[in-house]
């Protein structure tokens, strides 16, 4: 599973780890992605989304109905 948020579109960022000796190695900054279930009354079933912490806050603020409608319009698989 890739670290990708279905609501906000957050994806991993890339950069360098810098040691004390200033040696640089590649690293990856993953978003805080979790699988979470919500019940959607209009669909009559639960929907599992892969969302970041910010995505969970977005669902809490806007409501699951609004978010699911936007995802379906975008063509995301639920």
Commentary on this structure:
It is a single chain. Helices cover 27% and strands 36% of the residues. By secondary structure, it is of the alpha+beta class. The chain has one domain (13-74): Roll (Ribosomal Protein L24e, Chain: T), CATH 2.30.170.40. A two-stranded antiparallel sheet has the order 1-2. A two-stranded antiparallel sheet has the order 3-4. Helix 1 packs across helix 2 (64-74). The longest helix has 11 residues, at 64-74. It starts with 12 loop residues before the first strand and ends with a helix. It comes from Kineococcus rhizosphaerae. One of its GO terms (molecular function) is structural constituent of ribosome.
Would you kindly provide a brief summary of this structure?
GO terms for molecular function: structural constituent of ribosome. Helix content is 27%, strand content 36%. The protein has 78 residues and is an alpha+beta fold.
């Amino acid at each position: 599973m890739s670290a990708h948020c279905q609501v906000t579109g957050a994806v991993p960022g890339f950069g360098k780890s810098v040691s004390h000796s200033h040696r640089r190695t590649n690293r990856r900054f993953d978003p805080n992605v979790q699988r979470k279930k919500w019940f959607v009354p209009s669909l009559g079933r639960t929907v599992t989304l892969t969302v970041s912490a910010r995505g969970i806050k977005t669902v809490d603020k806007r409501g699951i109905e609004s978010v699911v409608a936007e995802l379906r319009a975008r063509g995301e698989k639920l």
